[in-house]
Amino acid sequence: MRATRLELPGGRIFDDGREEALVRLVREQIGVDAVIGSLLHITAVHPYWTCYLYLARAADDSVPTSAQTLPLTSDALAAAELEPAPMAELLRADLQAGRDLFSLPDLRDRLAKPEPGRFTEFNAWAETESGAGAVEAALTDWLPVSMLRLRPRVFGSDVVYEDDTLYLYVEEAPNGQGPPPFNLQGELRQGPATARDRLADLARCCRRHGVRLSGEYVEVDEAGDEIGPEQALPQDVP
Q1: What pLDDT is attached to residue 80?
Q2: In Å, how far are 123, 178, 192, 236 from 181, measured between CA atoms?
Q3: What CATH fold (topology level) applies to the domain 4-108?
Q4: How far is Cα of residue 174 from the mean position of the Cα atoms in its chain?
Q5: Prior bond of 181 cis (ω within 30°)
Q6: Residue 236's pLDDT band (cuts 50, 70, 90)
Q7: Half-sphere exposure in the Cβ direction for 55 (13 Å, CA)
Q8: Confidence (pLDDT) at 237
Q9: pTM summary value
Q10: Angle at 143 between CA 138 and CA 145, to 5 degrees
Q11: CATH topology of domain 111-232
C-alpha cells in the first residue's frame, strides 16, 4: 500500500521576509492563520536554496473543519510520504528521540545580525584527504544548520547556504590530480572586522575536521566593487 504523500506548507520566497512569507503561504495553502513559535531546523542540501523549518501553532478557531490533520508522532510521519524529505528526516529523528519540539532551541538565536550598508566578499579553498564528508562536517560546525550535504553533479558536487547575513556557495572542483579541492565563495552582509572574526571561526572549524583553508576577503560596496584592501583569510587562530 502506497504511503500518503503530504507536503509541509511553505514555498520559495524572494522579496518577503521569511516569517511574513510563511504566514502568508500557510494562509493561502491550507487556510490557517499561523502563529510562529520557533525556528527548528535549517538545511543546506540543494545547489539553489536553503530550507527553514519553523514550528507554529494555528491561531484560535482558524483551522477549517474540513482540514486533514496528521498526528505529530514518529509513527505517523513514518507512515506518510512527507516532503521536503530532509525536513521529514529531521522531524522523525526528533520525535524518535523523545524530544519535545516546543522545547528545542530556537535557531533564530544563532543567526547573526547584518550591518547595514556593509558587505564583505570572500573566496576560499578547502583541501582535505578525507573528502566531502570532512568539508560537510566543518561547515555544519560553522553554520547554524541541522543538515548540510554536498549534492553530486556530473562533475563534483555543490551546495548553497543563505541567511540574513551570509550567502555561501560551495563547489567541489575536481582537477584530476589527487583529492579535489573545494571552492567556497560568498558574501557577508557585515564589515571586514566582523567578517574576519567569522572567517577565523570557519578556519577553526576546518582545522578541527582536518581541512586546510586558504583564501582572501575584501570589503565591497552594494554594487560589488572593492572599496578596501584585499586581505588573507585568518590562519593562526587558536
Answers
A1: 83
A2: 13, 9, 25, 21
A3: Nucleoside Triphosphate Pyrophosphohydrolase (3.90.79)
A4: 24
A5: no
A6: low
A7: 18
A8: 65
A9: 0.90
A10: 105
A11: Alpha-Beta Plaits (3.30.70)
Quote the CA–CA distance of 238 and 96 in Å, as a whole number: 38
Per residue in 23-80, pLDDT (tens digit) is: 999 999 888 899 999 999 999 998 888 999 999 988 877 777 766 778 888 888 888 8
Long-range (24+ apart) CB contacts under 8 A made by 153-162 are: 153/47, 156/180, 157/132, 158/47, 159/44, 159/45, 159/46, 159/47, 160/44, 160/46, 160/47, 160/48, 160/49, 160/50, 161/44, 161/50, 162/49, 162/50
For residues 15 and 120, which has the higher predicted lDDT (pLDDT)?
Answer: 120
In the chain, domain spans: 4-108, 111-232
Neighbours of 49 (CB within 10 A): 14
Percent of the chain at pLDDT > 70 equals: 95
Give the number of other Cβ atoms within 10 Å of residue 39's Cβ.
21
Give the residue from 237, 31, 215 showing the smallest Cα distance to 126.
215
**How many residues in total does the chain contain?**
238
Calpha distance 199→205 (Å, rounded): 10
The pLDDT, as a whole number, for residue 47 is 83
